[in-house]
Amino acid sequence: TTRTMDEDITRLTNIWEILKKQSQDELVDRDLSSIIERFANHAQGDNHTSQELDQFSKVVRLMRMIVTRRQRLIGQSPCFSIVKDLIVSTSSSLPHMNEDHITNPNLDVEMNMVQWGIEFFVNSSAGNDPSSAANGTMIWQLAFPALFLDLVHVQVSKIFAPACALIHTTMSKNPQHMEDLLSPMGIPIIKCCLDRTEDHQEEKAFEWIYFMMLALVRHDVSKSFTMLGESETDRNTKGEHRTTNHQVIFIQLLDGMLQKDLSPEMILHHIAPFILQTFLAMYDPSLSFPEEMASSRSSDRVVEISSSDQTDARSNLIFSYEYFQMILTILQMMGEMTGQFDGPMHRDIVQIFFTGGLLTAIIEILGKTFQHEKSFNLNSKEAARIEADSEDKSFGFKRDLIRIIGNMCHGNKECQDLVRNLDGISLLLNHCNIDNRNPFIREWSLVALRNLCENNFENQKLLENLRAVKPAENSMLEELGLKAELDGQKLKISKVDV
What we know:
- This protein is mostly helical.
- The protein has helices at residues 2-21, 26-43, 50-66, 71-75, 79-90, 108-125, 130-143, 146-152, 157-171, 175-181, 187-195, 203-227, 245-257, 264-282, 290-295, 321-339, 343-355, 358-376, 380-384, 397-409, 413-421, 424-429, 441-453, 457-464, 475-479; strands at 240-241, 302-306, 316-320, 482-487, 490-495.
- It is built from 25 helices and 5 strands.
- The strands form 2 sheets. A 3-stranded mixed sheet has the order 1-3-2. Strands 4-5 form a two-stranded antiparallel sheet.
- Helix 7 (130-143) packs across helix 9.
């Protein structure tokens, strides 16, 4: 048997050299079929010696290349089930492996068998012809969910990366496979993959995870997001606003897809409505939560927030750290969607957001935030010490709110009038200043005011009729020994009399 396997390995090497030069050869096909038959017979069972396993892995290594030229022939052979059994029989220790095991020569054979077996499956199902699709279905039936779940738990990049490629390749062309992955049996596989996106050692795998999620977004973005939430058994019923880290990663990946990988039609008809509904479902107008974002850090996984309305039955709700991350990411996405398109596409996206009540909610949130900061009354020295802290979960919060207002009001009189009626113009004027926690908020406020006044006589008249009443308090001037005074409608700065 050993001599026969060695001979077959040599013959497979020769077959690959022939197939690289010519595509059709009946003699080669017959020879390949006989080798596969012998391989299947030798590889049956579980009790293989180390030498046999080494030979099997070498056969699979060659087959993973040959299958790129002979998908149909190999797909009709028993190869898939044999390779799957070999992976399973050598993978008992895989969940406990990590990158340190790569240098362990005693594990070389096992690692090679699993890695080359996965790559054989990937190449068998890659491509757009019917054979690759049929092969993908057979492999999916063999591997989902147990083998996939075992493979994505392996803490070794050379196993994990091709495992992600395999899931994507066998799933992305089959809607039923995507439904399987979004089922309770499949979601643990996705969650495990998303957990590894923050691992810098998994750069090779990240691309496959991204494409996997892209396929799921195109299939059903809302279901993908929902299924990544907490299960019914894990969900707390004490009024908690829970957002899982998996949902945050999903939204962050979706944000990256907006620029190049999603069509305008997909964004308009699926992504925009989904993002709007997700945001409105998360925002509770009875709460004064924006101020809590400033004190929330990654070390505080949950933050208790008291309702401003003490008669509210839900006067104390729990908001997770992930909740704040989600809010900020969604605001950034809505700013991108309302700003990156022109013409009818811009008009239609704005109409979706306007009809859904987004503009009203945004102005309400901005107003509450402003009133809180006004009552908090930080002096300028304290405010100046607030640096651009990446751990500050409110970083850029108000800027992104104002960006959305300005973008929605561009060339849209309905939005312009609503902002005026909600007293949003004075709110924007109060944000024409420098804020370290909201870079470029002054510029975005000026852009929003410009868009509000464009071809809108009522808004222009309102600004024209504004009159200075008194200088706003400015503790920074006081610290410098200066004061602001009105001389008619002109502002003057002078020294404070000692």
